[in-house]
Write a structure and sequence with these properties.
The chain is of the alpha+beta class. The chain has 2 domains: 144 residues, no CATH class; 81 residues, no CATH class. The chain contains 9 helices and 14 strands. A 7-stranded mixed β-sheet has the order 1-2-3-10-7-9-8. Strands 11-12-13-14 form a 4-stranded antiparallel β-sheet. A hairpin with a 2-residue loop joins strand 11 and strand 12.
């Protein structure tokens, strides 16, 4: 069952997001999908300029996984199969053959230069969300590179085949990969409400904004792709009337998966959160020749040599 998540300033708690910055945790309220929520319910959300969604409980996560019908398809896509063309009206078009995503750039935005190519932007969202999110973390790129994504998708499939109990453990990113929070000054908010704010027209078109959800502080932009959102901030930060741009940070205990690359070797750690005790960590190493090594399982907080070696991976689980 899909649930509508309504953010309201019910509880404000100073925390640290990944050891990088001060944030505010917004308590999550679950309301029926047919209930309309007034926009002013979040009017103070942007006061600290660090919006964060707190995840549901472990029990809620388990319910969500069963509702979603299990893990996403882990079949790796073919290598870059992209068809570049031109629409009948003269607009540039980029199509990803294996997923069918298309970006059409109107004549008005022909001179707009995105942070990466239309070919790359057209590749997201990928069929395997876990592999795409891990590829973003491992590569640090705006869009998951095809080779990194394909390797991780293949590895995850092999690991889950060897350990079926891990099929329900999915990646919990540090930020929502398809949402960007944009704060506007009073003039910008008035223009937005009146339907006259057009400064972000080309950004929204090229990066495929599917919804500009107006808020008292500005707007939550929802994208039809998964991006490395801290990098996309720069595409909106210098626009007129924009006061601040932030990813939607995610905090709270949750099952998670991290990955780290060393040469041709990929290592993975699956964290399983328990409602009654400490989380457990299970590690795997996949060699470049396809050899899978089970590194073992430990209780979170314990030390093992392989955990020390994978410190870069574990940082994504904090």
């Amino acid at each position: 069952m899909r649930r509508l998540r309504c953010l309201a300033m019910v509880a404000v708690i100073p925390v640290t997001c990944g050891g990088l910055m001060a944030c505010t945790v917004i308590e999550e309220i679950i309301v029926p999908a047919d209930v309309k929520v007034a926009a002013d319910s979040a009017k103070t959300l942007f006061d600290t300029k660090k919006p964060v969604v707190e995840l549901p409980t472990v029990e809620d996560d388990a319910e969500d996984q069963s509702d979603n019908g299990g893990p996403p398809d882990s079949t790796p896509p073919p290598q870059d199969a992209i068809d570049d063309g031109q629409a009948a009206d003269g607009s540039d078009t980029s199509t990803d053959a294996f997923t069918g995503h298309e970006i059409t750039v109107s004549p008005l935005c022909q001179s707009f230069v995105p942070l990466t190519s239309l070919d790359a932007l057209a590749l997201s969202p990928r069929p395997d969300a876990d592999a795409e999110l891990l590829a973003l973390e491992v590569s640090g790129a705006l869009v998951a590179p095809t080779d990194v994504y394909a390797r991780i998708a293949t590895d995850l499939s092999a690991i889950r085949s060897a350990s079926p109990e891990l099929a329900t453990i999915h990646v919990r990113p540090k930020f929502a990969p398809s949402v960007l929070v944009v704060g506007l000054n009073s003039d910008g908010v008035l223009k937005l409400v009146a339907g006259g704010y057009s400064a972000w027209l080309c950004q929204n078109e090229v990066y495929r904004v599917t919804l500009a959800d107006a808020r008292p502080y500005g707007a939550d932009l929802h994208f039809g792709a998964r991006y490395n959102m801290p990098l996309l901030v720069t595409a909106y930060a210098s626009l007129p009337n924009v006061t601040v741009v932030e990813p939607l940070w995610i905090v709270g205990p949750s099952d998670d998966v991290c990955a780290v690359k060393s040469g041709t070797t990929m290592s993975y750690v699956f964290r399983t959160v328990s409602a009654t005790g400490p989380a457990t960590l299970r590690g795997y190493r996949m060699e470049g020749n396809g050899t899978l090594i089970d590194l073992g399982t430990v209780v979170e907080g314990q030390t093992k040599p392989w955990l020390t070696e994978l410190a870069g991976c574990l940082a994504w689980l904090e």
